[in-house]
Backbone:
């Protein structure tokens, strides 16, 4: 009964914040970039909350069951990507407006923006699906409800909350959600240090940086398909666009790097510790929820569950909002979509993402599928564009389409043919680079 009450109050709070935020929305700038009023700390809080979604927490715990301490590379790659973004963050803020495809339109023409809008919008369904599945896993394990029911509820709450307040509600809650997440993770780690497991915890020196289930080639793939999306990513850029100035944007990225770095090892530790306490549990996340319920003080257990939900929701709302705006700009890449139309796109994307989540049933699998398509298509054109590269539009278009399709095929066959999958992803980046090289026109003077 207490669990239902806490969950109900949490959802009610989100709805109230969304409703009050909706009253602040006067134009597209308010809805999409919170009026560009974000301080460095608010933007960093939003970045941290967005990064620490189900991909980081639940996904890393899933990986720790197979890869042990090497699972830390998921978040470490995120840190590497953000660190690489730091010197470019001011330029991104200066040149950007609402979305990443708008930047591509400025660099390579409207058709490039349209291609980006279509491919990113579709690829981001995998990211939204990962958040839906993450929230469903949390609620199913905590409340002992059927996964399908929790998927329905998660999709509904995430969609309604985001539709109501747009970026105002996202920025407003992300800062406090990030504090809750950090407090819960560190306090849980502290309390679990004194809990004896039925089996010993794996040694860091035996399983990091590499181990049998995570080899250097896997790290290279992760850098290409995951770390790169923190250097050039719609969700990350949407946070930067909310900053009030270039200095705040750069400082927010630096703060995020410093805070996220130690979590790269804390999160897999929590997953592995849970499996040492419940070694017969098949699913690591169910083992972790069992630890939360049975080995933590009552207040901390509830805080940890709310932190996990906060992490998922803070990623899902940003992703859904970004994807809806990006898809809606396919017709007019340089023009902000009216808020009403964007809300319709959110509903459509939420429904399609729900179907994908039900089909894949894997947080990390759904996440990496979407990121692979995106990274193969847009990382190089976007990063080079920010550095002044300008190419012939036709070759840039070919680079995006072939890179995204080939990378997507590679990730889709990853489970059945992992070695062939890696070749496809390397080929995607190679094709992308080849087309950009052949189509080179000039280096534009940076401003």
Residues:
């Amino acid at each position: 009964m207490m669990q239902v009450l806490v969950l109900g109050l949490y959802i009610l709070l989100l709805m109230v914040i969304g409703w009050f935020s909706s009253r602040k929305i006067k134009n597209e700038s308010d809805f999409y970039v919170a009026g560009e009023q974000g301080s460095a700390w608010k933007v960093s809080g939003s970045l941290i909350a967005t990064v620490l979604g189900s991909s980081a927490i639940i996904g890393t715990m899933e990986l720790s069951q197979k890869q042990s301490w090497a699972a830390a590379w998921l978040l470490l790659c995120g840190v590497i990507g953000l660190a690489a973004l730091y010197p470019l963050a001011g330029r991104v803020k200066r040149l950007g407006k609402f979305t990443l495809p708008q930047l591509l339109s400025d660099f390579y023409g409207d058709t490039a923006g349209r291609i980006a809008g279509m491919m990113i919008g579709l690829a981001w369904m995998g990211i939204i699906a990962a958040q839906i599945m993450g929230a469903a896993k949390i609620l199913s394990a905590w409340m002992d409800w059927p996964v399908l029911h929790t998927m329905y509820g998660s999709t509904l709450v995430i969609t309604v909350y985001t539709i109501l307040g747009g970026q105002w509600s996202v920025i407003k809650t992300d800062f406090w959600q990030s504090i809750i997440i950090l407090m819960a993770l560190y306090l849980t780690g502290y309390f679990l240090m004194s809990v004896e497991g039925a089996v010993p915890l794996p040694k860091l020196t035996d399983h990091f940086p590499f181990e049998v289930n995570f080899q250097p080639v896997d790290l290279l793939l992760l850098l290409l398909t995951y770390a790169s999306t923190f250097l050039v990513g719609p969700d990350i850029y949407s946070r930067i666009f909310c900053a009030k100035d270039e200095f705040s944007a750069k400082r927010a990225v630096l703060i995020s790097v410093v805070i996220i770095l130690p979590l790269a090892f804390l999160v897999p530790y929590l997953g592995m510790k849970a499996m040492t306490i419940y070694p017969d549990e098949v699913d690591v996340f169910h083992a972790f929820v069992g630890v939360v319920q049975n080995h933590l003080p009552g207040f901390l257990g509830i805080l940890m569950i709310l932190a996990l939900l906060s992490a998922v929701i803070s990623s899902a709302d940003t992703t859904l909002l970004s994807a809806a705006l990006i898809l809606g700009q396919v017709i007019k890449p340089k023009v902000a979509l009216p808020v009403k139309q964007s809300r319709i796109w959110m509903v459509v994307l939420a429904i399609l993402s729900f179907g994908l989540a039900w089909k894949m049933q894997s947080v990390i699998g759904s996440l990496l599928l979407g990121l692979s398509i995106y990274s193969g298509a847009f990382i190089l054109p976007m990063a080079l564009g920010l550095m002044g590269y300008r190419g012939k539009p036709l070759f840039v278009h070919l680079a995006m389409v072939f890179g995204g399709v080939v990378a997507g095929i590679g990730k889709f066959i990853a489970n059945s043919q992992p070695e062939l999958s890696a070749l496809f992803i390397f080929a995607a980046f190679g094709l992308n680079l080849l087309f950009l090289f052949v189509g080179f026109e000039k280096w534009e003077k940076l401003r």
Q: What stands out?
A: The domain at 29-361 is CATH 1.20.1730.10 (Sodium/glucose cotransporter).
